[in-house]
Design goal:
The chain is α+β, with helices and mostly antiparallel strands. The chain is 38% helix and 28% strand. The chain folds into two domains: 2-133 and 313-334, ATPase, nucleotide binding domain (Nucleotidyltransferase, domain 5); 142-305, 2-Layer Sandwich (Nucleotidyltransferase, domain 5), CATH 3.30.420.40.
Length: 335
């Protein structure tokens, strides 16, 4: 039964799980609330995210995935076990085979930690697929062709840039920057310019509602609240879309540097393919408005954001899992 297999995008910001033939069945924040007294897991996902910045000393809300890799093995195992239990009705008492998308640049030790955490959480067997390959599959790119395709996957903790041909990565760059660094850049910018302290949830709200990678002639504004750095009292003010573009400019400089590095290493024949076909962006970070225009403007290569970009990695992993025999020779690291 296909339901005995799970495809997982174990992200820094969100964890997505898909079942071949059924689509995405879990889309939850990668956040876990843990008791400080006995290390017991209290809440996972959306419930834990609601606790961020609001917990008493006895409860700690943590992100067990940092920069695309496991920061806390025990908490990651508990989070995966919780998600497996959520969908246990799908595969009854059968331990599922799982495939997990991870950054292409992680070490063998980090890769092993992901596999071991999944098996300890209840998986029968765990496979690993490189995120750029999964993202390209999920974006509908024909990766098996003898032609170069460039993918830029901007996740919560990592940005993966790769040129793919004949089913595997030819050149890649993995930068440990992404959506979370954008959020922190917005926090720092608002504090410096407006003397206002805001939290990550407010920064995400700003990014999603009025965020842009390029300055706009007709600015959008958003009312936000925070704590004044001078008086320490609550304060409300308006920030603009151009505040966001200024705040995230350094983050995009790093992303563009990774893109240029890959382009410089790409063989001439594949470079010609990339120029002809353009670059494809995936991941939640690519949803920042005008990010594709910025990359196209700097590199001179057409760029577009994939349809439902945030789901591309998990959908690509789902495709690979559904066609395991076709893909495991080239794109899967096996347990």
């Amino acid at each position: 039964m296909l339901a005995r297999r799970l495809a997982i995008d174990l992200g820094t910001t969100n964890t997505l799980i898909a079942v071949p033939g059924r689509g995405v069945v879990v889309n939850e924040p990668s956040v876990v609330a843990v008791s400080a007294d006995n290390n017991k897991i209290i809440a996972v996902g959306k419930d834990a995210q609601e606790m961020l910045g609001k917990t008493p000393d006895s409860i700690v809300a943590v992100n067990p995935i940092k920069d695309g890799v496991i920061a806390s093995y025990r908490v990651t195992e508990g989070m995966l076990r919780y998600f497996f239990d959520q969908i246990s009705g799908i595969f009854s008492f059968v331990r599922p085979e799982v495939i997990i998308a991870v950054p292409a640049g992680i070490t063998s030790t980090e890769r092993r930690a992901v596999v071991d955490a999944a098996v300890s959480a209840g998986a029968k067997q765990a496979y690993i697929i490189k995120e750029p390959v999964a993202a390209a599959l999920g974006a509908g790119i024909p990766i098996g062709a003898a032609s170069g395709h460039m993918i830029i996957d901007i996740g919560g903790g990592t940005t993966e840039v790769a040129v793919i041909s004949l089913g595997d990565i030819v050149v890649s760059e993995s930068a440990r920057i992404g959506g979370e660094e954008m959020d922190q850049a917005i926090i720092d910018y608002i504090r410096k310019k407006y003397k206002l302290i805001i939290g990550p949830k407010t920064a995400q709200k700003i990014k999603h509602k009025i965020g842009t990678a390029l300055p706009l002639k007709k600015e959008k504004t958003l009312e936000i609240s925070g704590s004044n750095t001078v008086s320490n009292l609550p304060e409300t003010l308006y920030v603009s879309s151009n505040d966001v573009s200024a705040a995230v400019s350094d983050v995009f400089k790093k992303i563009i540097a990774a893109v240029k590095s890959v382009l410089q290493q790409t063989p001439p024949e594949l470079s010609a393919d990339v120029i002809d076909k353009g670059m494809v962006m995936t991941g939640g970070g690519s949803l920042l408005k005008h990010s594709d225009e910025l990359l196209s403007k700097i590199t001179g290569i057409p760029c577009q954001v994939a349809e439902e970009a945030i789901l591309c990695v998990v959908r690509g992993a789902e495709i690979a899992l559904d066609r395991l025999d076709d893909f495991k020779e080239k794109v899967l690291w096996l347990k």
